[in-house]
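Q: Could you fold this chain for me?
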Amino acid sequence: MTAITIRKLPDETKQKLRLRAAAHGRSMEAEARDILVTSLNQPAGADISWIQQLVELGRSVGGVDLPIDPRDAARAAEL
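A: Sure. Below is the predicted structure, expressed as structure tokens.
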């Protein structure tokens, strides 16, 4: 296993870790390890599965055609 050192940990955070460790009956190191392992085993980032579900729904109904209004030509910039 690898060891790490956490520098510049705010005193308030260290105190909260100490209290949480005591509440769980373990050392601060064991508590910090549990916090890291538990949090890193959670699904990462934002859940964007709804986008894939929306795409699949569109395909299941044969797609969706949206009208696109014609655009005017771009005007020349005046410098």
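A (continued): The chain has a mean pLDDT of 89.
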